[in-house]
């Protein structure tokens, strides 16, 4: 059973079908694209864990995933635990990892590097704590992904508006405020895979952002391999392994957001028991020699895993998240012909000329993705410094 119906699920369905696995997709949006490729669809809200469990029990499923679909992770973990199915963590661990406030407290209680943070359900309570924080701060929903509802606040007078925005984007109507951490270098992430509690695979990447976008904290691209130092990479691996030991993690994929800060410390910002959005696992299957999507499918139904080891890259890769910096009508996508010939791996455009598009505030406003390959780090860096010089979304 796959929770959700986004196009991120298509390679998962393909991998499952290669293993003769019957695929059931579930959400409340019957027109979502993944339902056209699955073997069976059921209209059930993926945030209703009891409804998901009832359906799973009735259908007698053998495995469940919420691959790259953040809202379904808790229901998937709950259903797996109740039915004794494979899953990368317990229901309790999923609840900790999926709630930014609980995760920050868990990190602090266990001696990890963590920003000064508190969670709230009422704006008035947060306004009483203005002196607790070291300004500027970040305000975000505790339970949203794709950078939705996230605001940097430099002046306490702007805090109420940021809180209202976060609450609007939070399914549970809870938000967190934390000190803004000044990063050294880019924000980073990791698409990692754990086998029997041991961290075996780390697809570390760097993120880049469009400072002209409506939400400058929503990643507009990622690239591999990360340029972070081996020292910092090992620090993150050590922290992740300790976290997985504490949470009694078993086998499966995790999406991680992390950063090295100007205080010299490495911080785990988010760790979620699912694949990342923006098709991160897909491009890693192009870029390196381990098929982590197939491994995740096998793990979910208890099949033997393919060999899992640290990735060996065959070049330098980037994802460009196509987006608009304003509301309007999509006209066309322009790619420099020489650049396209030399570097394009895959183009996946999700809109057509004449479609209404929204300003980029998060992953749900993406217009598509482009996979790119470069022979050298220098070629990659040239693109990252000015993506719009090579790829242009035209909106009227």
Pick out the low-confidence regions: none
Proportion of helical residues: 25-40%
Number of domains: 3
Query: Largest beta sheet, briefly?
Result: 8 strands, antiparallel
Level-1 CATH class name of the largest domain: Alpha Beta
Residue fraction in strands? 25-35%
Mean pLDDT: 95
CATH architecture of the largest domain, by name, is 2-Layer Sandwich
Structural class: alpha+beta
Instruction: Please give the radius of gyration in angstroms.
Output: 20 Å
Count all strands and give the number.
18
* Topology-level CATH name of the largest domain: D-amino Acid Aminotransferase, Chain A, domain 1
Please, could you describe this protein's structure?
This protein has 396 residues and is of the alpha+beta class. The protein folds into three domains: 2-85, Rossmann fold (3-Layer(aba) Sandwich), CATH 3.40.50.20; 116-179, 2-Layer Sandwich (Dna Ligase, domain 1), CATH 3.30.1490.20; 188-395, D-amino Acid Aminotransferase, Chain A, domain 1 (2-Layer Sandwich). It is 29% helix and 26% strand. The protein contains twelve helices and 18 strands. The chain has helices at 10-18, 49-59, 73-83, 91-98, 100-109, 123-127, 159-168, 230-246, 280-287, 292-300, 337-343, 377-385, and strands spanning 2-3, 24-27, 40-43, 117-120, 137-141, 151-153, 175-179, 188-195, 198-209, 219-224, 252-260, 266-272, 316-322, 328-335, 344-349, 356-357, 368-374, 391-395. The strands form four sheets. Strands 12-11-8-9-10-13-17-15 form an eight-stranded antiparallel sheet, with helices on both faces. Helix 2 (49-59) packs across helix 3 (73-83), helix 3 (73-83) packs antiparallel against helix 4 and helix 4 (91-98) crosses helix 5. The longest helix has 17 residues, at 230-246. The protein is globular. The protein starts with a strand and ends with a strand. The model has no long low-confidence stretch (mean pLDDT 95).
């Amino acid at each position: 059973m796959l929770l959700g119906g986004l196009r991120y699920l298509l390679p998962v369905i393909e991998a499952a079908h290669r293993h003769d696995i019957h695929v059931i997709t579930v959400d409340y949006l019957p027109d979502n694209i993944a339902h056209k490729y699955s073997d069976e669809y059921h209209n059930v809200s993926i945030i209703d864990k009891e409804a998901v469990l009832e359906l799973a029990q009735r259908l007698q499923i053998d495995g469940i995933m919420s691959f790259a679909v953040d809202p379904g992770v808790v229901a998937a973990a709950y259903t797996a635990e109740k039915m004794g199915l494979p899953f990368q963590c317990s229901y309790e661990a999923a609840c900790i990892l999926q709630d930014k406030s609980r995760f920050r407290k868990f990190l602090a209680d266990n001696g990890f590097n963590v920003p000064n943070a508190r969670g709230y359900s009422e704006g008035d309570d947060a306004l009483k704590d203005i002196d607790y924080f070291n300004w500027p701060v970040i305000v975000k929903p505790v339970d949203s992904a794709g950078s939705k509802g996230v605001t940097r606040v430099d002046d306490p007078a702007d805090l109420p508006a940021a809180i209202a925005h976060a609450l609007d984007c939070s399914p549970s109507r809870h938000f967190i405020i934390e000190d803004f951490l000044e990063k050294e270098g880019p924000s980073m992430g990791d698409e990692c895979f754990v086998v029997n509690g041991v961290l075996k695979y780390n697809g570390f990447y760097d993120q880049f952002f469009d400072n002209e976008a409506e939400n400058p904290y929503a990643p507009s691209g990622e690239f591999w391999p990360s340029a972070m130092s081996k020292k910092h990479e090992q620090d993150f691996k050590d922290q992740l392994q300790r976290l997985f030991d504490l949470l009694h993690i078993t086998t499966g994929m995790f999406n991680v957001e992390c950063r090295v800060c100007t205080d010299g410390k490495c911080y785990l910002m988010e760790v979620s028991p699912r694949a990342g959005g923006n098709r991160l696992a897909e491009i890693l299957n192009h870029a390196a020699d381990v098929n982590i999507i197939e491994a995740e499918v096998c793990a979910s139904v208890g099949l033997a895993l393919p060999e899992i080891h640290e990735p060996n890259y065959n070049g330098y890769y980037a994802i460009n998240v196509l987006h608009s910096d304003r509301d309007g009508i999509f006209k066309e996508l322009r790619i420099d012909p020489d650049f396209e010939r030399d570097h394009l791996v895959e183009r996946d455009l999700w809109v057509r000329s004449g479609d209404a598009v929204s300003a980029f505030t998060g992953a749900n406003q993406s217009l598509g993705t482009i996979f790119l390959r470069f022979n050298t780090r220098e070629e990659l860096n040239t693109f990252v410094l000015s993506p719009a010089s090579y790829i242009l979304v035209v909106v009227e």
